[in-house]
Amino acid sequence: MSPHEQNDDDLRALRELGPIEPPRELADRVRRQGRAELEAVSAGGWLTLATRAWTLVGLPAALVATVVAYLSWAVTSASALYR
Amino acid sequence: MRDPTERPLVDSLRRGEASAFDAVYAKYRGRIYGFLLRLCRRPDVAEDLFQETFLKLARNAPRLAEDTDVAAWLFTVARNAWVSHRRWSMLDVSRLVAIEDDALPAAKVPDPDARADAARAMERMEHAMGSLPAASREVLLLVGVEGFEQEEVAAMLGIKYDALRQRLTRARAQLAERLAMVETLEVPA
User: Fold this and answer.
1) Cβ pair B173, B140 in contact under 8 A
2) Contact status, residue A17 vs residue B31, Cβ threshold 8 Å
3) Which residues of A touch B110 (CB under 8 A)?
4) b (16+ CB within 10 A) / e for B115-150
5) Per-residue pLDDT reduced to its tens digit, B111-163
6) Closest chain A residue to B37 measured between Cα atoms?
7) Is the CB of A37 less than 8 angstroms away from the CB of B175?
């Protein structure tokens, strides 16, 4: 006998309880809001992707390029002073 | 308990189709609301958590995995929302008593026909369930009422299968005890 088959009468009785429908007003409101949210996230898909790409790749790359450019300028300028 | 017919529904949800959201909502709203109402036993809290669960589905729809088990996903989110709510409520001393007081009346459920034996049995069951500790109620709702496999419930609750088995055994014993108590009280003197 599998563990699931052991004296499951009480669990079967629980199954009889069944679902409970939410109040009509709540059900309608959640459905409307859910549809609106879904529409918003679907429409904003490319924007989300672009923002993520900028944050993860564009911004760090720009920062690294700026720091490297500044350092090379600083080294060049400092060594020019001693010449 | 994964429903293979749901695969196209998940694909449509991932594409952001409102009709797919409607279909999932129609299929699961009663189960999720019933689960939350029986779990937290406060209609106002159940309504908030119900809304939170389905809005989370809408927000996360494009990021769902292709093989998402919608039922397991929804019940996990609903259960986590309840756990999170409970955690925050514990910080609010004024609500502490309300949450832990097992003497609270069971949540309002549709009135059963008092004349029918089956309806009386269900009413007794609702009362017995309502008087159980939250951890026991949670596991009985998922395994008993919702019919999830025990392995699935262990994953939802983030515990090992053996721990789930122990919790379920304890919960069933408590339920039998409470049911016997309710029946004893009903026997006319």
Assistant:
1) no
2) no
3) 20
4) eeeeeeebbbbbbbbbbbebebbbbbbbbbbbebeb
5) 545 456 777 778 888 888 888 998 899 999 998 888 888 899 999 999 999 99
6) A20
7) no
Chains A and B: how many Cβ contacts under 8 Å? 110
- Which one has a higher pLDDT value, B72 or B100? B72
Question: What was the ipTM of the complex prediction?
Answer: 0.72
Q: Which of B74, B176, B17, B186 is nearest to B9 (CA)?
A: B17
Query: DSSP of chain B, one letter per residue?
Result: ---GGGHHHHHHHHTT-HHHHHHHHHHHHHHHHHHHHHHH--HHHHHHHHHHHHHHHHHHGGG--TT--HHHHHHHHHHHHHHHHHHHHHH-HHHHHHHH-TTSPPPP-PPP-TTSHHHHHHHHHHHHHHTS-HHHHHHHIIIIIS---HHHHHHHHT--HHHHHHHHHHHHHHHHHHHHHHHHHHS--
Q: Do B176 and A10 touch (CB under 8 A)?
A: yes
pLDDT in tens, B75-122: 999 999 998 888 877 665 444 444 444 444 444 555 545 456 777 778
